[in-house]
Design brief:
Length: 396
Amino acid sequence: MYANMKRMNNEMAVSPIVATLVLIVVAVIGAVAVGTIMGTFSTSVSKSVNAQQASSSSQNEILVAGSTTVDPITRAAGAVYSTQNPGIKIVSQATGSGAGLQAAGQGVADIGQMSDAPSTAQLTQYPQLQVNQIGMGAIVVITNAAKPANATASLSYGDLQTAFLGSQGQNPLGSAGTYTGATLLPGDVAFAQGDFMSPATVILRSDSSGTAATFYGFLKAGQAQLTTIANSTGYQAVNGNPLMVTTVGSTSYSLGFADYGDVVANTQSGATVMIVPYNDQLIANNGGANKDGFYELPAAPTGTANILADWNALRSQAKNQYKYTVEAPSTASYAGVDVYSNQTLLRNLWYVTNGAPATDVKDFIEFVQNGPIDPNSAIHEGIFEETNNFAMTDIA
């Protein structure tokens, strides 16, 4: 019996040891399990963070640079495009048309935005450039709203030449004249006609501007005149359309020219500038009663109805210009005057790329060409209409 009791005691003695071993085994297994779980969680978190970082770093950024006229279009269209394409961000820099073309040509920007077509010299410098028209815009002549430079209700073509080219205004289609300075002086033709206040100051553009190139082309300025203007110290000059509007708005008896969209924005807020009405009698005389050949600038818009009426009138003229220069170019002249390529303040708006654009860049260009709608607008206006420009869908 003693033996049996001893055996039982031994068995009972072994039990705590076994229990301890069991606990140790359980603890080890538990630690391994927890470690495995924590390791899995840590890996999961790490993967999640890495995925987010990869997603952020892989977001494609399309850089657009150039025209201060096209910049508002690109920004507005880019905001809509990025909402619809979350992986792509559109960045627009307003640097001027010339700088935009250079940035695209050198591969610094994905897209160069321009408010005039690349010149032959520019295409020679960057032979890989591809040009895409995205719409049209208008240039208007502006003056200080409180103290206007013009003494008459509207200006003639000769008046504009006198103001911006000096005595060249004596002959609207004549040979190059002598530049007398951008500060209008008594004795100039315009003052003899009493069309301007005296003295009046003209504000010019000093940057590489598509707006300026179009405007001076409209005035038939020769290269000699432009060189003289560039070297003259007798005028004020500014960079960009917004600064032009600001400068004219803060300078009494001043005259300038700017993108229509920038001017409308001003007349709807501070109203420090106003548009000087201009009827192109030269074209009217050559084109007779044909309204298609008659170009006119609107009066200063003062309300929503006026803006819409002016925009529709300019869109109609833009449509005619596209018709006569692209769809049926042989009908674009009257009595030898090339109406729409030389005698207009409506100009084409462009995106240029250095060779064939990448797929996402091409997709954005086509998105803009199709006249995107702003979903945040109360009446779902088109981006071009909101910026007071004209999409390809408006003119083609």
